[in-house]
Design brief:
heterotrimer; A mainly alpha; B alpha+beta; C mainly alpha; B: alpha+beta; D-Maltodextrin-Binding Protein, domain 2; 2 domains; four-stranded mixed β-sheet; three-stranded antiparallel β-sheet; 13 strands; C: mainly alpha; 13 helices
Amino acid sequence: MTRQKRITSLIIHIVLIVASLTMLVPFFWMFLTSFKTITESTQVDPFVIFPKTWSTDAYKKVLNTMNFLLLYKNTILMIFFRIVCAVVTSSMAGYAFGRLKFKGSGIAFSLVLFQMMIPSQIFIIPQYQMISKMGLPNTTFALVFPGLVSAFGTFLMRQAYKILPKDLEEAARLDGLNIGKTFVLIMAPLTKSNTIALSIFTAVFAYKELMWPMIVNTDKNSLVLASALAKMQGQYTSHYPELMAASLIACIPMILLYLVFQKQFVEGIATSGVKF
Amino acid sequence: MIWDSNQEPGIRKLIDDFTAKTGIRAEIQVVNWDNYWTLLSAGAEGGALPDVFWMHSNESQRYMSNNLLLDLTQRIKASTEVDPENYPADILGLYTYNGKYYAVPKDIDTIALWYNKKLFDEAGVAYPTADWTWDDAYEAAKKLTKADGSVYGYANVNTNNQAGWYNQIFDNGGYVISDDKKKSGMDDPKTIEGMQFMAKLINENLMPSPQVMTETGEDVLLESGKVAMTTQGSWMLAAFRDNEYTMANCDVAPLPKNAKTGRRVSIYNGLGWVVSAKTSRPDDAWKLVEYFGSKDAQLKQAQLGITMSAYKGTSNAWKNSVPQFNLQAYLDMQNDMVIRPYSRNTVKWENAINDCMLKAWTKELTMEEACKEAARQMNAILAEE
Amino acid sequence: MKQQNLRHTTTRNAFFWGWVLILPTMVGLVILNIYPMIKTVYQSFCKTGDFGRGNIFIGTANYAKVFSDPVVWQATLNTFKYMIVEVPFSVIIALFFAVLLNKNIMGKSIYRTIFFLPMVAAPAAIAMVWRWLFNSQFGLINNVFHISTHWISDPSIAVYSIALIGIWSDIGYNMILFLAGLQEVPREYYEASSIDGTNGFQKFHYITVPMISPTIFFVLVTRIIAAMQVFDLIYMIMDRSNPALSKTQSLVYLFYQYSFVQKNFGYGSTIVVLLLMFIMVITVFQMFAQKKWVHYN
């Protein structure tokens, strides 16, 4: 490596390290707080950064009282089905909006965009009433319900399909494939990176959602992570070390999910960079 | 359905006792406060409320007037466990509509003065006693406030009305809302006079700035030794019990009284157990809330040290749950209680008042101007009810 | 003749397939989202009663009130302030790091995961942590740098502090999208231009940006919409006793107060419609502008 390249590389690494540390400061704080006593966690003066004794009481209490395996299961099921629904419906619609010219597509796509612009809080009560009438609160279906289709996903996939080269469809038609087969066999596989991105986002948005799961799945056995964490906040004060410990434990499946997806992400390089 | 997960284990025990007695089983579901009322609203509109749930004075009028709650009047009359005589009349009043009862009272709360013994010792000030007036408190605050701002004598944020400045209003003979719920009392001269206590504290900087008080709660300030006095509701006991600093250094005294009128008021409030009007099991649901209101259950509830029970005379157990604190102070405050001001749209005008008070706290308006403005806005809101 | 027939069939084919492919999404959207929206618009023309009963139709009275309400206009200003700061910074920073992490750097997986972490932290925990970081007397930032800024209680800067938290949370999201877009840029373009003797910056300006302009467009559109809808951060970090609230509360926050706290769904719905108008104008503008700078194949 030439000297100049080495210096550039060093500078890049320093920048990345500084940025990473800044991103992580809040997590350090969460981590440290989870080992403190309640008094230490709320004390303002003197400000307690490091706990005097690293007490694992918060973790023990949280692991004993909260059934994390069940929470993981409920949350992961919700995420899984939401991903499947989002990817399938959004890929189909994204391809149609991005590559096909047909009557009514303009209006339909405007409706898709329109949905994204509406604050999601107004959906809560009507959707709850629908689930209630169907008799399906406290089920995985209820959790998935608002995510059965995804306007956001549709928009994302439309962009993904629009980028692909024009001649692919010509080639497919000459080979005798109809539009449906073209979509499934040729076009869809080329959007791997964006599909994975969509999966990651669907997962994160579902994981963070609070108002809907809290209202529709109140039964102890059908709670998700976000609801369980919110319940830990008392009306007047919260047990901060326990809240931090629980939040950190709750992060774990998402981080694992991301690491798994990330590998797929990186491998996406092989399939894109289309040969013309 | 309830909103406080801190009370869940205790109520679970009560339900277990109930099941042992009657064989009827019940499930608790906890939804946090923010989403609780949204869920109930959605359920009310779409038809499915929980069988049994907590009701709060902020919302009780709305639910009763819309026929969403089961009328319990006849059942209460016939019951041996639940007798209206045994509960504070005002609490029952919160959940009474057109002369009918809709809830079994669950608990009550009162307000008292918490103070930091260590800071008092350092400043050489005598601890608050039952003879204190608000003027004594003001004098003590002056002595306790350090010039460098490391300690303030008192703390009361503008939104802390029930456990804070409402009490001074009523001590002085003022009022917040008229009995017929049509007029605001915020511009009554006695109210404005009562608010002068807070005005003095604000203008002479005996309290932390509103910015500090909004970023750091009064309880945290007390727990960190930054303030010497603050008034808090009995529901804060658990928090102060779990904090080592307050356990070691703080104690509680009755609220000071008004020098002129001699009144020592505590605003109070209480939750009620209600039953959905459309429940499929009204008899069982009734038996459950009846049990919750019985002397037995109310005693047990108090023993858990979470809240003071509504049933008269059962709160001694609560008092004894943390002997280090002089919790008798809270019980003494029951001698002169005023129900927390409410109406159909409580939250709306309460927010309006608090916002006006904020301007007084930040010295944008004088206290008198803020009170008059608060009354103006509140009257407009009440006119719409 | 045959040519025309072919085109006719293609159009009919496209029509058939187009609608089949978008049908699930459209049906879902109409039931789940459009219908509630229509309900909301209807509510904005009413004085709503409790629990959806007794709605009195009052025509445009709510709208008249909204247009003359200084609180609403202040909230609009607050929302725009938030958006103007949060979106550009989070986009530019994310783009910068995405380009860096797209190269073959040692430990790039770790860095990518670190940037992703803020997205999965529980909102309650984030709020608590940032409240402490920003605390004017006892917070970490003020104590480390020996300043006494009232980050979240000074009316003139609170909204920007909230924007800072927004930037911190959103960099990961933007970065993932940019990385996805960057993967699509064929290596050959860079190699060819290296032969022509272009440097890093030129490559970025003439190859990277145009090639990922659809991604940048998507990020901008979605981030602006999301920024206009900011609510959770403000709700969790500031409460009513905060002097800075009136200069920070967003339109969605106001809507939540009216609809969910005060149960005044009529007025709350009016605010939602107003917000929607703003977002629509901005988004439509962006859709037209995309012809100028977004480069599709």
